[in-house]
Amino acid sequence: MSKLLEIAGDVPELKFAAGDVIIAEGKPFTDLYLLKEGEVEILRDQLSIGKISKVGSALGEISALLGVPPTATAIALTPCRFAVVKDAAAFVTGNHEATVEIARNLATRLSWMTRTYVEQIYDDI
Asked: What per-residue string of b and e applies to 69-92 under the rule 16 or more CB within 10 Å gives b?
């Protein structure tokens, strides 16, 4: 089990079928979804920017931390199950361990993107 799933504890679950929109870019969203099973495609302005399949990966964390609508759309590529943390903003501001774990996950994504795109830029020069 992932650290975030452990921290969240016993919370409700939500299931999505392949093809379902889980989160829509720009639409209000206040929960935090933690992936328990499945694969999710992330789209920004209808452009695919990645896939998530790691158990414990969070969806909605940027909205929770910044107080903004979702910055991307998440679509289930396969049947998915999520642990649902209601009121994500309260969860991350009231739980130091959760905030640190989310920060680690975001830093890992940023590091990967920086490495990937910086290498791509240098390859194009």
From this structure: ebebbbbbbeebbbbebeebbebb
